[in-house]
Write a structure and sequence with these properties.
Elements: E1 2-8, E2 11-19, E3 22-25, E4 28-38, E5 41-46, E6 49-57, E7 62-67, E8 70-78, H1 79-92, E9 98-101, E10 106-111, E11 118-119, E12 124-130, E13 133-138, E14 143-148, E15 155-156, E16 161-165
Antiparallel strand pairs: 1-2, 1-8, 2-3, 3-4, 4-5, 5-6, 6-7, 7-8, 9-16, 10-12, 10-15, 11-14, 12-13, 14-16
């Protein structure tokens, strides 16, 4: 399964390619067919709609995508690349706050810090049990533990906010 974040302007879509012919876009399952014509042109069918897609890579993860002749500037990143980009943007903008979210569904076994305690980047702040394995969740920056949103022993979904670091 491949997971991406596709950005066009101020709009972001989370896309999971489940298998050939099926994807989930922002939680909605979509069936599709793709016929690739050459290195940068394809036809995409979703339902009764057929779209001609031409794409050209510009720099890094940036593309110009032409959908039925309409030009769209797009950025395509994996979920991990998107998180790294968000952290770099916060740092560049002087924002020194980080949201710690569950990287996968599971059971929050232990919160290793209390609100107001100092934490260093890379230091474990919580233990999440998922698929019978204990996973350390680490701080992404130096700071103090802000608000804690989840209690020990509580189940969490992927992406659910656990705590903030200020």
């Amino acid at each position: 399964m491949n997971e991406y974040v596709v950005t066009t302007g101020d709009s972001k879509k989370k896309i999971k390619i489940l298998s050939t012919g099926e994807a989930v876009i922002d939680g909605k399952t979509v069936h599709y067919e793709v016929v690739k014509l050459n290195n940068n042109t394809l036809y995409l069918r979703t339902g009764n709609k057929l779209h001609e897609i031409i794409y050209e890579k510009t720099t890094g993860n940036n593309y110009f995508i032409y959908v039925n002749g309409q030009k769209i500037k797009t950025t395509v990143r994996t979920e991990l690349e998107e998180k790294v980009n968000e952290l770099l943007e916060r740092k560049k903008d002087g924002v020194e706050e980080s949201e710690i979210t569950a990287p996968m569904p599971g059971l929050l076994l232990k919160i290793l810090k209390k609100e107001g305690e100092e934490v260093s980047a890379g230091e474990p702040v919580a233990i999440l049990e998922a698929m019978k394995m204990e996973n350390e969740i680490r701080a992404q920056l130096n700071g103090k533990i802000g608000k804690i949103y989840i209690r020990e022993g509580q189940s969490v979904d992927k992406g659910e906010l656990i705590l903030k670091i200020n």
